[in-house]
Amino acid sequence: MTRRALLIGAQTYDLTGVAEDVTVMERLLTDRGFTDLRVCREPGETGYHGMDEALTRLAQETRTGDAVVVYYSGHGALIPLPGALRECHPGRPAYLQYLVPSDHEAGTATDFRGYLAEELTAALRRLTAATPNVTCILDCCHSGGMVRSPGEWRIKSVRCDVPVEAGVARSVALATPARPADPDVVRLVACQRLGVAYENERQGLFTAALARVLEDFRNRPVPWSVLITRIRDRVRLSEALQRPDAGGPSGRLPFSLDAPPQPERLPLRAHGGELRVRGGALFGLRALDRVRLVFPADGTRPGSEAEAQVTAVDATDALLDPPPEASASPLPSGSYAVPVRVHTRSHVRIDVGGPLADALRGRLASSPRLVEADGGSDILGLVRARGGRFEVADRKGLAYRRPEYMPGLAEPPSSAVRKIVELLETISRGERLRGLADPGPDGCAAEDLRARMEVETTPDSLDFREFRPGDVLRTGDRYRISVAGRTRTPLYVWLLGVGLSGRTSLVTHDQPSGIAMEPDTGHDGGFGDRPGPVEVRWRSGPVEVWWPQDVPAVGSRPESVLLLVGDRQLDLSALGGAARHHRSEPAALSALLDEVCEGVRDSRLSITAKELRYRVFDWHTTVEPPSS
């Protein structure tokens, strides 16, 4: 196995810190065993063709089992299309998004010198065809036309003064029919697609924070999903309006395929003596529930833990009775809450005896979301023995998993119980998400908010009809979700699914903190310069329904699709569990870098930011088993 990295630093226009960004990343990756480092920092290497050739060579030379990093520092551009081009390509998003090579200004109407999001998509797909261990890191901004930030920070965005006709034509040509989203690329990003990233005179803010956090945790097995919270905290200290995030399989350890088990981490916020679990209502918390608070070591303060009780729910936030350890504000970087006991615990019936039954009862007694019950119609799962193995069945008597995926009767009770409880907790999470209630029009400040689910009429036709209540889906069917409304402030969306296996997935896992709905405002693309509400919209690409191989192909199974629309960004990756949809694809240009390299890019949330206001749209159906 070889550890390979391609580091591209395009120091264009007024940037001054790109060279240092690349040097820092080169040193960081060398220290972590990367032996094949390809550094592109000279103008001839960072032009459009140089970038393309470097990515092509990297894919050609990558082998099975390799670990690969693609890093870019420089300008990014998000260019509104001229009206004439929008008329030529109706139905397409209003922006062209790309990385800015060093020969960008040499572009003409027939030779566009911008490295398009779709081109990066294809390049990373070629890499994951050879190895699933791919990490893409972007330290750039993608909101063209923004003004400079006051103070020492320089914005990493650039206005486009070159013709874009050829770029649009190339983008259209690359927008092939929807394909599966690449599930293997970890995406580490500096900011929101419609937001900004910054550098000072020395280097990029995101790269500096990334390097520092990786150095702090170099000897500890901490996944990206945890490290990114520390990176955000470091960026927040700069006062720059920038919010980094991690998308894709961010539960992995850095530059690895290993994904250690993690507790159900819920975000904490402290302000003015008040302690909140951000989005606690979405995570199933109510008054009188209890959580365990985890405070990592911070400077001179050692790490500590404490329990707290939920006193009330304010919109989506769960308010806590703060213990003395949480009286200080701000909280130590990386603090979080773990549910200990919640109000709604799923009922489990145990229909086995012996040591396993005793061990299972012990685990259920300590589970925050499961409890033993004798019977009744609200049973989540029945644990029984069948054919030499343990089985967990639903209230209809259908097994949740095939026998070969369940522990055998001869397996040690501790091991068998762990696997059984993990399955029950997965199914419980799905049932909790299915019951997520819509707070109604008062939940989100938007006018005429409407959502629609459509199902493809024939395979791969891209011809969709509206989903109707009572419709049944089959393996291989594809659906898509759209939403539109009018608002005076930005809105964000999350698409979640509860599959027929009981697993939950954040379909929009590339942007776990929410995808910004596109404002339909001609060329300005903003909100603050208009007195009235702005029409905004979003549409997913096709999402395929599939029958997991570990689920018995017997009986129809429930499938649910949920769309959340909120008025601010919030990391909801904990709602999605560890699962993902088999196939999903963002619309061709609506998210652009989302699928392969972008997680969430948005402005920093003030510590005094109000709670998330949201709406929920849901569609519930059943999926027929595949024919034999």
Instruction: Count the DSSP helices.
Output: 10
Look at the structure and give the mean pLDDT: 80
> Which class best fits the helix and strand makeup?
alpha+beta
Helical percentage: 10-25%
CATH level 1 name of the largest domain: Alpha Beta
End-to-end C-alpha gap: 40 Å
Low-confidence stretches: 143-153, 176-181, 578-609
- C-alpha-based Rg, rounded: 25 Å
CATH architecture of the largest domain: 3-Layer(aba) Sandwich
Index terms:
628 residues, 10 helices, alpha+beta, seven-stranded antiparallel β-sheet, Rossmann fold, six-stranded mixed β-sheet, 34 strands, 4 domains
Descriptive overview:
Residues 3-242 form the Peptidase C14 caspase domain. It holds the Pfam family Peptidase_C14. This is Peptidase C14 caspase domain-containing protein. This protein has 628 residues and is α+β, with helices and mostly antiparallel strands. The chain folds into four domains: 3-205, 3-Layer(aba) Sandwich (Rossmann fold); 266-282 and 285-341; 348-434, no CATH class; 441-624. 19% of the residues lie in helices and 29% in strands. The protein has ten helices and 34 strands. α3 runs parallel beside α5, α7 crosses α8 and α9 packs across α10 (413-434). The longest helix has 22 residues, at 413-434. The chain is globular.
